[in-house]
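Severity: low
Component: inverse-folding endpoint
Summary: output formatting inconsistent between runs
Steps to reproduce: submit the following structure tokens with default settings.
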């Protein structure tokens, strides 16, 4: 089976075999397509209000997600995630790219200027407190990292 994947997918074969093993046998671009389509067209989906509820449509087919997957070399990423370049436009060939999940999440976290200001003001207060409380640098970094995640959850 691995030989078949090597012939069919070349450098991406190992990534695809591992992905299918961990994701109910689904190909990575098919899963991306299904997730995007679900967010845009199913009113019962968790994130529908952020996508379909705002008029965002998935105008791509699975074969186009496959093209984008190989174009962006998503198989070299630890956790590839589909991202719209312009968040107010639809899922279209020119507006979609694969990026690392962590990078995608950071962009969304600070896309809203209010979140950035909230984080920065909280960070300044915490840094002052940490200096007075004699926190070590690694403790402060860990706490600030957690804080970013908490702001993301609170603002949803």
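Observed output (run 2 of 3):
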């Amino acid at each position: 089976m691995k030989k078949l994947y090597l012939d069919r997918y070349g450098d991406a074969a190992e990534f695809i075999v591992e992905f299918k093993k961990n994701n109910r046998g689904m190909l990575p671009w098919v899963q991306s397509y299904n997730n995007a389509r679900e967010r845009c067209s199913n009113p019962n989906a968790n994130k529908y209000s952020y996508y379909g509820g705002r008029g965002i449509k998935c105008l791509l087919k699975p074969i186009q997600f496959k093209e984008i997957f190989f174009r962006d070399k998503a198989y070299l990423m630890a956790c590839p995630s589909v991202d719209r370049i312009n968040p107010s436009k639809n899922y279209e060939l020119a507006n979609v790219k694969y990026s690392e999940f962590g990078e995608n999440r950071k962009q969304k976290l600070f896309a809203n200027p209010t979140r950035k200001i909230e984080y920065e003001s909280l960070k300044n207060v915490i840094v002052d407190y940490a200096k007075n409380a004699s926190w070590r640098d690694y403790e402060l970094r860990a706490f600030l990292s957690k804080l970013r995640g908490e702001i993301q959850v609170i603002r949803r």
